[in-house]
Amino acid sequence: MKDKLQNIVSEALSQINGSEEMERLNEIKVAFLGKKGELTSILKSMKDVAPEERPKVGQMVNEARVEIEQKLEEKKAAFTKKLKEEQIKRETIDVTLPAKKVATGHRHPNTIALEEIEDFFVGMGYEVVEGPEVEYDYYNFEALNIPANHPAKDEQDTFYINPEIVLRTQTSSTQVHEMEKGKLPIRMIAPGRVFRSDEVDATHSPSFHQVEGLVIDKNVTFADLKGTLQEFAKEIFGEDTKVKFRPHHFPFTEPSAEMDVSCFKCGGKGCRFCKGSGWIEILGCGMVHPHVLEMSGINPDEYVGFAFGVGLERIALLKYEIDDMRLLYENDDRFLEQF
What we know:
three-stranded antiparallel sheet
């Protein structure tokens, strides 16, 4: 039995030493140590060994198994080392070569403009609120003092889902939701996407963004509105910016006005950017109409307020001197990487 075990071990070691690949080692392991291997066969024949010899034979089989397993592990380690060395030779890295620059994302010009607007108004104590983009006709029009026969409700300007539900044409609808909560006073801005049935060109899009502002409190005046917007213009366009208010009409404010800022390109002298006028229209504003307050459950004899709305894309176009609104949405890396 001893001679037979020695022959098995010698044959196993010989085959292991002569193997040249990892797969061959697995075959040798199965042949000598597997369920049907040489050493297993000897263990199965232990019934034919005299009882007093069985412990000795069992020990000899275990020693043979350990010797074969150790040799297999040594050979596997040698194979692994060799494969690693070959891989290193194939994948040699020249550390003197310039590294590849990893491209990272950055903020969109619209996002940059919006964050500046939000930072300014949050610093003045305003709250940033959001409202639904799919809105009831009541909140988008009627609650803002826009009657059923008003031109703004024409289907040429508004996307109707059904007679009662529209894609909002202005974020002013968010102001109505806030006023209906009855938590006074109110100081808020409502940025968001709006939709209008416009043709796509350099200055128009069927989908764009607005930022509406609303203040409701006691003893609020038009002077408060003018002072707020004047500081806002200086924050966005520079300390030397001047503002001018022109009378206008909006159904939900009375009195109403449009605000111009002095051209920050030419300092008000007149240039191509401001079409020679020295001024650039920037937003619409006014005192909240008493009827709008009443429809939202606010007593106009006790509370007054002002509202304003600015197109976010317009701020971005002016701030970065972009002459085509479509550039903001074409996802051209050559354009976006400039910001």
